Amino acid sequence: VLLSLPGPMGFAIAKRLKPSTPSPQAKESPTGFDPERSERYRERLASDASFERRLLRREALIVVVIVILLVARALAS
Amino acid sequence: MFADISHGVLVAMVLSGATVLVVGCYQYLLMSVHARRRPYAKAAELYPRVAVVLPAWNEAAVIERTLVRLMEMDYPRECVRVYVVDDASTDETPEIADRLAARHPGSIVNLRRQNGGEGKAQTINHGLREIQREGWYEAVLVIDADVLLTPDALGRMTRHFGDETVGGVMAYIKEGSRPAGYINRFISFEYITAQAAARRAQNVLNAHACLAGGAQLIRRAALEKIGGRIDTTTLAEDTVTTFGLQLAGYRVEFEGNAVVWAEEPPSLAALWKQRLRWGRGNVQVTKRFRRVWLRRGSAGPLGGVGFAAIWFSVVYMPLFVFASTTGLVTLFFIDRELSIRAFQSLWALTGFTYLFVTISSLTLDAETGKRCWREGIFFPGAVNLVLIAYGLFGVLLTPLFAATLDNAGLGPGDPGSAVLLFCADIWLSAAILAAWVLTRLESRRLLGRLVPPLLYVVGYGPLLCAITVAAYVAELRGSEQRWEKTEKVGSIGAAV
Q1: Quick check: A56 contacting B, CB < 8 Å?
Q2: Cα of B51 to nearest chain A Cα, Å
Q3: Which of A28, A65, A66, B126 is spaced 20 to 30 Å from B82 by Cα?
Q4: Are A70 and B352 within 8 A, CB to CB?
Q5: What is the arrangement of strands in the sheet containing B215-219, beginning at the earlier edge strand?
Q6: Which of A52, A65, A73 has the most B C-beta neighbours within 10 Å, making it the best mutation to test the interface with B?
Q7: Are the C-beta atoms of residues B62 and B146 closer than 8 Å to each other?
Q8: CA atoms of B46 and B158, how far apart (whole Å)
Q9: pLDDT per residue over B456-475, tens digit each?
Q10: Whole-model pTM?
Q11: What is the pLDDT of residues B212-267, one digit of tens each?
């Protein structure tokens, strides 16, 4: 959301906005609200959040494999 | 009783050799719960006015492409203004900056310093003074002249400013040289561990060591709160900025999905020069912020035990290695049997942590992993891999090969086995010396050709350890503190 208000004041308003919701200021700004960019923003957010969620499953799988190796070695020795 | 205690201390010293990898595992475990802290809970679609400060000194080979990329970002054009701070370049940098400024009026500004040479930090401060005088900006992005942002990188970074406690955001810097030489591939793997993994872990701890100077985004209010300028007294100005922001009450966020490409050193000599600067900077920061460590009450998350473990496992890495070797050698002479068991335990511990860290790294960034999997495997060096294999499987395999070892004069009690064990005991430290020797051989015409394969034998990890040792030596000797620029030749591949 492009805010035409100066400096940190613009931020202060922007942070209260919900994601992807164009503010009145944005609609009136020189840039205007760009629905295509907003759509891309939402897609990236969903994709990035999904990537971060997959990390836990992947690491858990690796830990399980390593622990099995560890136990196998301990039993074999 | 005394013997038990002294033996216990020696075994602990031996096991301290695996500290870096054990802490590495800790970071990967933290990373795995990164999603649980909901990194995008307060993210918002924000496009604040960003002043890009781009310090440049003789960057003709790279700067045009960087500027063109900045103008092609998926970000409202009128919300980006690039300030090229030309530090009195003597090549075509000013002409290129002027030409692009004319092509993009109002979007690219060339701030030429007639009297330069004061270093990167002073150059950045010159740009910061200018943008603060204009007052247009809501956030500042400091990037290196060779850094190429992916089109969506800035938007991915600014979304974190939806959380007003976030003062700074850093991107994931990836090595982009194409064709990538062997050093570049080692660096590629190193950056998966040191950035993609370690910085996610630091997100979880809410404590960051460094907003990487190559691409750091700082909120205006946060910059103003730390004085509106960056530190010029150390060689780690980006780390000092990062600590300053956090001690001022702001959070710093790593955005691992915002990718920027950088050209990293292609040779051991260039790498040594760059990392020596980083290493000395870390030693300086350790001293400067001595009242932060392990003082969670006054320093917040920066003073936490977890962050201290991460920081000191790197800064004190050579001490752990030397302590481990000292423990092994002492045990070798006073209790050979215990020495062998401690040795096996050290390498078994190293082996499991190595497996975990390496597999995790190669899967975390599979695209980079495809290019540098060999360097990932050989990161500790071929000799250390043999010792890891011994630690993991030696207990199982030694009985199977007992007859062969006896025939080779390496059976229990043979002098040969004692010599072999002693060599293995001292290798952890000897590898550091060997890595340093390789950097000296690189410039030799014939021997220099052996350096690449020998680095795979000695290992990139020991090389980093050697540089840390050199950083301590330089600081103790009070060597001149110079900002030595890493040469950039524009080797980042067209496809990135």
Answers
A1: yes
A2: 12
A3: A28
A4: yes
A5: B108-112, B80-86, B50-56, B139-143, B215-219, B166-175, B251-262, B148-149
A6: A52
A7: yes
A8: 6
A9: 999 999 999 999 999 999 99
A10: 0.91
A11: 888 999 999 999 999 999 999 999 999 999 999 999 999 999 999 999 999 999 99
